[in-house]
Structure formats: C-alpha cells, structure tokens
Structure prediction request, 302 residues.
Amino acid sequence: MRRNPITIEVLETLDAIDRRGSFAKAAEELNKATSAISYAVQKLEEQLDIALFQRQGRRSVLTPAGQLILAEGRDILQTTTRLANKAKEVATGWEPRINIAVESNTSYSTFFSLLNDFLNEHPSIEIDIRESVLNGGWEALEQDRVDLIVGAPGPVPLQKGYRAVPLALADLVPVIASHHVQAKLAADPEKLKLFLAKLRRVITHDTSLVNVARSKGLSSDGRVLYVQNIDQKVEAILAGLGIGHLPRKRIQQHLDNGELIALDLAEDTDNETFLAWKISNKGKGLKSLTQKLTATGGLLAP
Prediction:
C-alpha cells in the first residue's frame, strides 16, 4: 500500500506558513531551517502532483488545493492535540468523558451554571447529559450507563456501593390550568378532595428500562396522560389536559400570570433528592465535578 504523504508534521508546516506568511517565518516558528521547510513542501507537491503555494509579492499564498488540504488538516491537528491531551489525562487519572443523568425536576439553570465553571477549568473533558425520571437515574447508574446522577429522588438504593449526597428538596407544586373545566375546585378544598381522583393526571414516564417503574404525586381513577419530559408535562397541563406536580422554578411565571393555579392539597410528599455516584469510580474529573456541585452555593440545600 502506498504511504500517505500527508503527515502531521507536514500539516503543521503548512499551517505555520499560512499563518506567518512566508517560509522563513514558518521555519523560525518551527525551529527549522528554511531549506527544510521548502523541501517538505516541494516533496509533498511532487507526491500529490499539485501546487500548494503561489507567490503574491513577498507572501506565499495557498492555492485552492492547498487551502483544501490545510482546512481539513487543521481539523486533524486539533483532533490529534485533543487526543494527546486526553491520553495524558487518562494516564494521570483524569477521565476523558463524564456521563450524567439529570432528574427532570432539577433546576437546570443552577446546574448548567456550575457545569460551565467546571468546563472552564477542565475544557478537554467531554460531558454527556441525559434526562432521567424517578427510578431511571438510579438504574442508569447501577448499569454504568452514567457516572453521576443529579437530583435523583429518594430513597437511595441500599447495598449498591453508592455515595449519595442530599440536595435541596424539589419544590413541586400541584397545579391545574386556569381554563380547565374543573379549575374552580382550586378555591374549594372540600370539593377538591371529592373530585381529585376523577381528574386526569399528567405523568412523566419513569425512564427505567429494567427495574419496576414508579410514579409519585396525585392519584386518580386511571385517567392518565403520559409524557416524556417536564417540558411536555408543563405544556399538557397548560393546555388543560390534566393536573400534576411541576417544579416551581419552571412554572413561576405561569403562576404569577394566572395561567396555572396551585391546588390546595393536604399532602406530605417526600421530595428529597440526591447527587450520587459509585464509590468505586475514582476518576479525578468526577471528583472535581461533584465537589463543585456540592460546594457552598451549589446544589445543596441551604
């Protein structure tokens, strides 16, 4: 098989010539003789049977073919640089990627703000985020589909080797749309108790695939509308399709403008949530991220 003449070294040479504008300045940057730079370019042109540069006054300017090679080549150079950095990180205990499951009720604005701080400190670590509901996060952690779960509801599964840190309680509000045919029940707690079970519930699917799915909140006589995420649940309740619990931070504007009405229910709902990961996971990136998420001003309860 014929050897590919386009090497990392020659791509670095083309990049330096283009940025510095001359073979001499590129040679100075790369700490090479100008003759070595000229020879490398000439050899590549001969092997590809194309011209890569043309003279414009004192500058060496890429031909269209040269521009194509350099544009694609710079992507390769960036990829190899990231690869080298990741290899160094892995060798020193820094994982290249962290997979995170974020419970749908979590305050995304707070979480992503903290994640931005983390990535500014560790820009080469890739983050893969997915949404989870109820048992889904715990199951994903158990099956190693994620390294960290954020905002997973209690109770914490026992004897699984998890490190679980309590977070702020999820402030969930039972609501009904102001134009719902039974919206008047919100102002009459006694009638609400009588008709509550007859009102359709809007439920977010538990994202667990293997374990027994569960649901929390209001009961009904079987009239249920299932949705995939909290955004769909908000829109379904706003449309008057049913009632359900929603995170206050997601719907405060709808409560303020009267589109949604809070239901006065005498309920004792356990909304404890957790940040959790496997104790066996010794990645330095995960350790740094969990420290940031649990630091003062983070996701912990005040």
About this structure: The two ends are 65 Å apart (CA to CA).
